[in-house]
Specification:
Layout: E1 9-17, H1 34-46, E2 53-54, E3 63-73, H2 80-90, E4 95-103, E5 115-123, E6 137-138, H3 145-152, E7 157-160, H4 167-170, E8 176-189, E9 192-201, H5 208-220, H6 228-235, E10 250-256
Parallel strand pairs: 3-10, 5-6
Antiparallel strand pairs: 1-3, 1-4, 2-3, 5-9, 5-10, 7-8, 8-9
Length: 263
């Protein structure tokens, strides 16, 4: 028996995309963005203007496997399975809607998120990646993973991460965030050796994960000692940290929500 759908509520879309062709997630006039592409497709299907909210505003070039995008419903939308087929027929290259769930009225993909997980892929050593060249940063030098893990311990917990974000974006803003986990380990993808940095936290500042990774690579290549990262965190100054890792190595992997969000 079909369950009657409430007239008003929200839909939550899980979206995957190759960030290379997009000017980031957030809509921008005259530019191809993930949000812009989604809202255009949604408007075509539901025959009204749709405003969406994303769990994370990924920068240009950053990828996603588990981006979550929400919008309010009025009861006229197709069922999730039908909407999924229609959207993917309209979406174009580089972006796929992988799932749609009904959410409680007032649900926000951004504000209801409990945790966000990002993964950054590195390829260490003298041999450049072949299949992963668009999705991993080739560091050209080997990485000391033990040193990187020791350094990452300074990031766990609730701290002021002002040193790890774009300076302009931090002006007048609260830059305290909680990082729950930083895990660094070897993996193999398409037969190529990689190192993945997994970062989980309640929320992230502009380019925060990329600056963290760039700083960890400074430690992994021996340019800095592991204890340096604690000093960087305490400085609350972007100039104290390492370089910003390239966007193409970063993927928004997963977003976690309380179970009561779903209908």
């Amino acid at each position: 028996m079909d369950v009657e759908r409430p007239a008003h509520g929200a839909y939550a879309l899980t979206v995957s995309y190759d960030g290379a062709p997009f000017s980031g997630f957030a809509r921008q006039p005259g530019r191809d963005t993930v949000q812009g592409r989604l809202e255009t497709a949604l408007a075509t299907v539901v025959r009204r203007e749709v405003v969406t909210v994303g769990a994370g505003r990924t920068d240009a070039g950053v990828h996603a496997l588990g981006q979550v995008v929400s919008f309010e419903t009025d009861g006229s939308e197709p069922e999730p399975a039908s909407l999924l087929r229609s959207l993917n027929a309209l979406m174009g290259e580089g972006i796929v809607v992988t799932g749609i769930r009904r959410a409680a009225p007032g649900f926000s993909a951004r504000f209801d998120a409990e945790a966000r997980e990002y993964r950054y892929r590195l390829v260490p050593g003298p041999v450049p990646p072949l299949f992963l060249d668009r999705f991993a940063w080739w560091t050209r030098r080997t990485l000391d993973l033990s040193a990187m893990r020791a350094a990452a311990a300074a990031l766990i917990g609730e701290h002021d991460f002002r040193s790890f974000c774009v300076t302009e974006s931090a002006e007048g803003q609260n830059t305290t965030r909680r990082v729950e986990r930083v895990e660094i380990g070897p993996e193999e993808h398409l037969g190529e050796h990689t190192v993945t940095v997994q970062v989980v936290g309640n929320a992230f500042l502009h380019s925060m994960v990329r600056v963290i990774v760039g700083s960890l690579v400074e430690v992994g290549t021996g340019r800095r000692e592991p204890g340096w990262l604690a000093d960087v965190r305490g400085a609350c100054d972007r100039a104290a940290a390492g370089p910003t890792a390239p966007a193409y190595g970063l993927t928004l992997w997963h977003v976690t929500y309380p179970e009561e969000c779903w209908l």
